[in-house]
Amino acid sequence: MKSCLVVDDSKVIRMVARRILEEMSFEVWEAEDGQVALEKCLEQMPDAVLLDWNMPIKSGIDFLRDLRDAPGGDEPVVVFCTTENDLEHIQEAISAGANEYIMKPFDSEIIQAKFEQVGLI
Question: For the whole model, what pTM was predicted?
Fold first, then answer.
């Protein structure tokens, strides 16, 4: 079973994403900010990370840069899932190592399509 770490400061978003991902047969872990997410990744790297941009303590983009610098941190597929939809944010995310980008709000069809595009399913 593949694993996905859902990183978002919104408990509701994490809950919705968990439900969708579990229906897609993923083992789901959660983190409420980028610092907790990095700690979880250093313990055990997930196959995928569904990542919010704007969070307290450590933002999604800072987490992504730290993840990609960590041993094994180049392996997880990272999909940003955020309200930041301008070209500048998207380019920054891709150059920092994101594999894909999803706009909030999302649904199961959007997540499934993106995960298929990046080869997770």
Answer: 0.96
Contact 48, 76 (CB under 8 A): yes
110 half-sphere exposure, CB direction, 13 A CA radius: 15
Which long-range contacts link 15-18 to residues 24+ away (Cβ below 8 Å)? 17/50, 17/81, 17/106, 17/111
Distance of CA 6 to the CA centre of its chain: 6
Tens-place pLDDT, residues 47-77: 999 999 999 999 999 999 999 999 999 999 9
Instruction: Give whole-number Cα distances, 64 to 12, 20, 49, 79, in Å.
Output: 22, 23, 10, 10
User: Residue 60 burial by CB count (10 A; 0-12/13-18/19+): exposed, middle or buried?
Assistant: buried
Q: What is the pLDDT of residues 27-41, one digit of tens each?
A: 999 999 999 999 999
